[in-house]
């Protein structure tokens, strides 16, 4: 996809979207709750645990989307480029949509059914490729990269509900059970990354 887009778009387009993407990566890394890993770790997972994981993911997704939109205005001011407002707003759909995925989808990883996960990942990247290249061909604009990312997110969330049907329920009854493990895992990951950076 990158090779094809490089033939259609200009380097400035990639740089513009890279600013928004870098911000998104930082925000998602800092706020990572590792809820999927918590569901995989616990053997006695109940319905309330899945509902709580969905609720926490949805809240995180909404907060990240809001943070991305606000940051878009800040970055537009700092870089004197109003296009960053639209870019960050478009990329904000990624955490928002990913936070609304079916929590039952994690059972495929828990049961080591990586074939299903791999197929869905391939489908997501295919959707991103088709949409990004199509929009680039029609508009020759940086919006092609943003549209491709949004297409991948939409495809991913639809796939989770197709593979693992789920009716959303909002509750925080198991938040302590899930966060006790996920926070520990996140801190351990940060500690590992810090040690790695010092080498």
Structure report:
This protein is mainly alpha-helical. 79% of the residues lie in helices and 0% in strands. It has ten helices and no strands. The chain has helices at residues 2-8, 11-30, 35-41, 47-79, 83-91, 93-98, 107-110, 114-139, 143-163, 175-198. Helix 8 (114-139) runs antiparallel to helix 9. It is globular and about 50 Å long. 33% of the residues are buried. The model has no long low-confidence stretch (mean pLDDT 86).
Secondary structure elements and pairings:
Blueprint: H1 2-8, H2 11-30, H3 35-41, H4 47-79, H5 83-91, H6 93-98, H7 107-110, H8 114-139, H9 143-163, H10 175-198
Helix pairs in contact: 2-4, 2-5, 3-10, 4-5, 8-9
Radius of gyration: 18 Å
The percentage helix is: over 70%
The whole-number mean of residue pLDDT values reads: 86
Total strands: the figure is 0
Order of helices and strands: HHHHHHHHHH
Tell me the strand percentage band: under 5%
The DSSP helix count reads: 10
Pick out the low-confidence regions: none
């Amino acid at each position: 996809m990158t090779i094809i887009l490089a033939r259609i778009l200009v380097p400035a387009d990639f740089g513009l979207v890279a600013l928004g993407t870098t911000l998104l990566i930082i925000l998602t890394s800092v706020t990572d709750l590792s809820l999927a890993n918590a569901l995989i770790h616990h053997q006695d997972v109940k319905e309330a645990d899945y509902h709580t994981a969905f609720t926490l993911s949805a809240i995180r997704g909404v907060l990240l989307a809001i943070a991305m939109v606000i940051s878009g205005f800040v970055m537009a001011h700092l870089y004197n480029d109003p296009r960053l407002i639209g870019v960050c707003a478009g990329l904000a759909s990624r955490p928002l949509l990913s936070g609304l995925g079916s929590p039952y989808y994690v059972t495929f990883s828990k049961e080591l059914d990586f074939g299903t996960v791999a197929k869905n990942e391939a489908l997501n990247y295919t959707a991103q490729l088709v949409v990004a290249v199509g929009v680039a061909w029609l508009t020759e604009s940086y919006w092609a990269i943003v549209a491709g990312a949004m297409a991948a997110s939409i495809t991913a969330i639809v796939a989770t509900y197709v593979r693992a049907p789920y009716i959303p329920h909002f509750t925080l009854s198991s938040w302590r059970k899930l966060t006790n493990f996920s926070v520990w895992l996140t801190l351990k990951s940060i500690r590992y990354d810090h040690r790695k950076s010092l080498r």
